[in-house]
Design brief:
alpha/beta; eight-stranded mixed β-sheet; 12 helices; binds NADP nicotinamide-adenine-dinucleotide phosphate
Length: about 400
């Protein structure tokens, strides 16, 4: 966080005059954004489908170039002693043409205090591994204790991790010297888990309190969990919609509210994992889920403005994801959509990077940004895309 830099004026003008002008300008002058990520490790459960999708790379860079909005430099992350790990470099450069420049070293996440929700499976699990690889101190949460324990063991593996002596009910600390199943070494300085059910009104605050107490503060709150839903026409079940709203939306609000005082102190970040379905005009078969994601996007976009208006140092990133190959998503859409899923490990990396760069909005994979542009510019194509995406 502390190594992010932005040229003066980049924030205001860059975020107001958005995509079309920048995109066109960069196409004309061939000044594409160059970004690179070098890390030799593969996450323990990185999907074999972690292919590069080369065809989309150029376009993705174009879109990224047009959408990158730079924030003020982030605060320094406290580094705890004994945190020397392998150096991995995460670098993102702004367009030379716009005179902006942003660099972010992954080393800046070393020692960062991170709470990731919904981290027992899917993208949340991959997020935990990403932060761990970058040497952060991670608290993960979800409902299933046995799965959380496995993830935290993997995240902390083979590192001289401090073992927390304090074992609280329904929470555990896992140290790097714990025996673990095979897999590449990660590097969390600290990996703790705490179970919590986000359908209740008490657990969101309890989980945040646990993280703040155990880590001595908080630098990143990563909101990622979602409740169960099916990919089918709405059955008329109002009770399910209400329950899903509680898990997917209201608990996000509660978690953010509980974490904000600590994030204000640390000049930290809220990172919201959201979906294209919360941006794009409604698509069939996901009415309750789509409603919750629209609520999330609406609430947190508004909060972004309010934080900016009161000159808060807390950054808020909303990451818009397309179809990702998590087990739960694949179960739902298998045989029902033509949309190609992208790897969860890459999606997680994208989210970590966007949060670390304090971007306001980020899109993964590349086509999600294009789809959002088409939504507003070409309603005819929008409808064609929607109707041809599902069987
Ligand atoms: P997932 O695999 O279904 O994981 C959901 C996580 O939430 C699990 O860790 C689950 O763990 C936890 N969870 C469920 N109910 C909970 C509750 N009541 N309280 C606390 N935790 C609960 O989801 P995913 O596919 O990785 O998606 C992660 C995020 O990415 C979501 O915000 C989703 O909207 C977004 N996204 C995903 C896709 C995609 O195609 N996968 C696309 C766009 C956006 P427990 O069961 O142990 O509680």
């Amino acid at each position: 966080m502390g190594q992010i830099t932005a040229a003066p004026g980049a924030e205001g003008a860059g975020s107001l005059i958005r995509t079309p002008v920048n995109l066109l300008r960069n196409v004309i002058f061939h000044k594409f954004t160059v970004y690179s990520f070098s890390s030799s490790d593969e996450g323990p459960r990185q999907n074999a489908a972690s292919r590069s999708h080369a065809g989309g790379v150029l376009l993705e860079r174009l879109l990224r170039c047009s959408s990158m909005r730079l924030e003020r430099p982030g605060p320094a992350i406290p580094r705890s002693s004994g945190s020397r790990g392998q150096t991995r470099v995460l670098r993102l450069q702004g367009s030379a043409l716009t005179g902006t420049r942003a660099t972010c070293s992954a080393g800046s996440l070393r020692g960062a205090r991170v709470l990731v929700t919904g981290a027992s499976t899917g993208i949340g699990e991959q997020l935990a591994y990403c932060y761990a690889r970058l040497g952060a101190q991670v608290v993960i949460t979800a409902r299933r204790e046995n799965v959380l324990q496995q993830v935290s063991v993997l995240a902390a593996r083979r590192v001289g991790v401090k073992r927390s002596s304090q074992v609280r009910p329904r929470s555990r600390a896992v140290s790097g010297d714990s025996p673990a199943p095979g897999g590449p070494a990660l590097g969390a300085q600290k990996a703790l888990y705490v179970t919590g059910d986000m359908a209740t009104t008490s657990d969101p605050s309890r989980v945040v309190k646990f993280a703040v107490d155990e880590l001595g503060g908080l630098d990143y709150l990563v909101l990622n969990h979602i409740g169960r839903y099916s990919f089918s026409p709405w059955s008329g079940d109002v009770h399910h919609v209400r329950g899903l709203m509680e898990v997917n939306f209201l608990s996000y609000v509660q978690l953010a509210s509980a974490a904000l005082p600590s994030l204000e102190k640390s000049k930290g970040s809220i990172v919201v994992v959201s979906s294209l379905l919360g941006e794009f005009p409604p698509t069939p078969f996901t009415a309750p889920y789509t409603a919750t994601k629209f609520a999330v996007n609406g609430f947190f976009c508004t909060l972004q403005h309010e934080l900016a208006m009161r000159s808060s140092d807390v950054s808020l990133t909303i990451s818009i994801l397309g179809l990702v190959d998590t087990e739960s998503a694949m179960e739902k859409v298998s045989g029902r959509t033509r949309v190609v899923p992208y790897p969860a490990g890459e999606a997680a990396l994208h989210v970590v990077r966007a949060g670390s760069l304090r971007q306001k909005e980020s899109f993964y994979p590349w086509y999600t940004h294009l789809v959002c542009l088409v939504r507003d510019w070409c309603p005819f194509f929008r409808d064609v895309i929607i109707r041809n995406s599902y069987y």
